[in-house]
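step=encode ok
step=design start
structure_in=
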């Protein structure tokens, strides 16, 4: 999408060059230059814009400088909208200085001013910024529902394109806090889509970090680590506050993996970065995490030191979740020191577990179980053990459901993003047409003779631009349709088969199905995949459908040792589709042994694959199955048609019937050149 957007911009720029040159010459001849007074005012307001930008950029790195820039901007500007832009940014300083109520009052004052102004782009974007900031306030106050209300209001304004990813990240954080991981993932992926489409690379670090946190919540350590490593590549270039959050969350990753030494190193790095700052919320949050790590390392004095530093702050803002966490740590220390009276007293301080994250609830229950065992209260110990097992089981069950929901969310998002992309293109085309028409009218009014000379040239260029844009949109629609149809087609076929083959091995087969769904969604996001991945996918598909075909199915794989499976690439599902057609259309109703053979060879010019079966043969005009739509082969042929147009040496996909010596069956031949380019241009 990023490459596509850049190309469209370049086309527009080149095709409009002569038009703009003509307009500029005409305007210079007739209008002359602007007055000195207007020029001075413009420079003054440009300076104000620079000051506001510098102030916002300095908020998390140099608060005194931010105050200076924003105060100067408010003093200089004569534009009330810019004044409140600087005023709103200045109010964020109070957040950072832990003066939350003062900051909120300033933002509400800005909102009151904006509500009296007529609707315009500047007004809506600034209002979106204020709603976003109020949402952040409620997030800090541990009120996610209120935070989401204001963040959604910000989204409805709507905000500027440049600020959308930040808003999506904030929404994701609140849904993650509420335990709604699929919705949290959805907003992060929206943010990533906007960042890719408009070259907003600065947002990829927090988005990757957020996705790492999502998969950590699912205890999918492998995928969590992948996203943390992506974020870590840009760590040296990030702002101070982003570095602190990354170190803290990376420490949580190692904590849940029970790698406490690595966890401590991450938290200590965050502590060092926060040492000389006034960011009390982050600072005390890190203290609480360090305290818990020291408890698990059995360094009780250090544990006490850090929770005693953190607790007063969170009491002052009544942050129930973190106070519950600190209480659990204190109980753990008291139990470790055999101070049972203190442990009982701490136990009574918490009156309710409502709204507490299951992970933290499980930790506290474990310490209470140890307390009961040490005091020979075996009945209570059993009850705590049972409660902890229920919590842990619910975590595992929730994680499974969240994974499935995550798959569904990714699938639905593909179609949504395509519609948004097409809408953006449509609006862009309408705006460009309006701009060109306006310039053309001005040119004709001012310089009739010049418009007569250049009119034909301008119209010709405009038509060329419309024609090229039409070709671009056709290509986008073809590629989009192919990518969005192949995944639902495959899922429909597999799920339809599963509904007809439920047996005692249902649980294992459902796990295989989920794996296939995940892989199919991942594959639709790529124009090519490793051959080894396609082979693994095809084998899993065969395994899932074996029972339906029957016990008399024989599958043979003959892969040449000269084929580099880890480097050779192939179009997604290019191998799976002929295998699916053999199992679904070739073998049903057939008596005797059923044979399926896959042979992969390396030739001088590329990789050649043969998929052969002894089924009923290939009959494209016949009705082989009541559920057959022909989508798979049609989509594959469309993909090859588009990709081959970009390559000198073509890929091949041939289907032949076997009809010699009384035998029947189908033979599919696939050829992929060594240097085949999988690019849509």
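sequence_out=
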């Amino acid at each position: 999408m990023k490459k596509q957007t850049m190309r469209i911009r370049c086309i527009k720029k080149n095709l409009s060059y002569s038009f703009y040159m003509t307009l500029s010459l005409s305007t210079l001849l007739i209008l002359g230059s602007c007055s000195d007074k207007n020029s001075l005012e413009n420079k003054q307001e440009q300076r104000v814009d620079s000051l506001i930008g510098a102030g916002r950029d300095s908020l998390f790195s140099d608060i005194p400088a931010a105050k200076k820039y924003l105060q100067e901007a408010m003093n200089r500007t004569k534009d009330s909208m810019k004044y409140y832009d600087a005023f709103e940014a200045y109010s964020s300083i109070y957040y950072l200085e832990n003066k939350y109520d003062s900051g909120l009052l300033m933002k509400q004052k800005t909102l009151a001013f904006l509500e009296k102004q007529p609707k315009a782009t500047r007004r809506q974007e600034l209002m979106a910024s204020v709603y976003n900031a109020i949402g952040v306030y409620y997030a800090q106050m541990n009120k996610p529902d209120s935070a989401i209300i204001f963040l959604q209001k910000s989204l409805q304004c709507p905000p500027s394109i440049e600020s959308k990813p930040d808003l999506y990240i904030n929404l994701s954080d609140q849904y993650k806090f509420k335990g709604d991981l699929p919705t949290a993932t959805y907003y992060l992926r929206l943010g990533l889509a906007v960042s890719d489409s408009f070259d907003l690379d600065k947002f990829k670090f927090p988005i990757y970090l957020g996705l790492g946190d999502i998969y950590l919540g699912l205890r999918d350590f492998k995928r969590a680590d992948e996203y943390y490593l992506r974020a870590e590549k840009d760590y040296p270039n990030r702002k101070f506050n982003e570095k602190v959050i990354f170190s803290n969350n990376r420490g949580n990753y190692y904590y849940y993996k029970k790698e406490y030494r690595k966890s401590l190193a991450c938290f200590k790095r965050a502590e060092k970065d926060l040492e000389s700052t006034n960011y009390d919320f982050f600072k005390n949050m890190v203290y609480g995490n360090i305290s818990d790590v020291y408890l698990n390392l059995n360094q009780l004095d250090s544990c006490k030191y850090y929770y005693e530093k953190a607790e007063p702050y969170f009491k002052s803002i009544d942050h129930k979740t973190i106070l519950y966490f600190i209480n659990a740590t204190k109980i753990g220390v008291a139990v470790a020191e055999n101070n049972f009276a203190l442990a009982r007293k701490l136990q009574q301080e918490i009156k309710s577990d409502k709204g507490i994250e299951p992970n933290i609830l499980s930790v506290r229950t474990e310490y209470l179980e140890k307390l009961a065992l040490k005091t020979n209260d075996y009945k209570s110990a059993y009850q705590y053990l049972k409660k902890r097992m229920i919590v842990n089981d619910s975590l595992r069950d929730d994680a499974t459901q969240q994974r499935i929901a995550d798959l569904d969310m990714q699938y639905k998002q593909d179609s949504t993003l395509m519609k948004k992309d097409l809408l953006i293109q449509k609006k862009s085309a309408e705006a460009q047409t309006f701009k060109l028409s306006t310039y053309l009218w001005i040119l004709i009014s001012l310089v009739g003779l010049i418009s007569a000379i250049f009119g034909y040239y301008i119209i010709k260029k405009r038509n060329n631009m419309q024609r090229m844009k039409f070709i671009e949109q056709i290509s986008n629609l073809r590629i989009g349709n192919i990518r969005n149809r192949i995944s639902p087609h495959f899922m429909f076929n597999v799920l339809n088969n599963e509904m007809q083959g439920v047996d005692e091995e249902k649980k294992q087969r459902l796990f295989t199905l989920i794996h296939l769904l995940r892989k199919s969604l991942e594959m639709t996001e790529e124009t090519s995949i490793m051959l080894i991945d396609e082979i693994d996918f095809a084998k899993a598909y065969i395994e899932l459908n074996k029972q339906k075909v029957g016990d008399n199915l024989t599958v043979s794989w003959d892969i040449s040792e000269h084929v580099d499976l880890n480097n050779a690439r192939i179009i997604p599902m290019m191998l799976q589709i002929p295998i699916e057609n053999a199992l679904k259309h070739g073998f049903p109703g057939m008596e005797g042994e059923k044979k399926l053979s896959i042979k992969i060879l390396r030739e001088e010019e590329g990789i050649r694959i043969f998929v052969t079966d002894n089924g009923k043969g290939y009959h494209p005009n016949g009705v082989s199955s009541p559920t057959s739509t022909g989508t798979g082969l049609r989509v594959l042929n469309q993909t090859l048609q588009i990709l081959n147009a970009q390559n000198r040496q073509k890929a091949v996909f041939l289907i032949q019937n076997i009809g010699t010596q009384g035998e029947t069956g189908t033979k599919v031949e696939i050829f992929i050149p060594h240097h085949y380019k999988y690019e849509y241009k």
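step=design ok
step=annotate ok -> Residues 1-34 have pLDDT under 50 and may be disordered.
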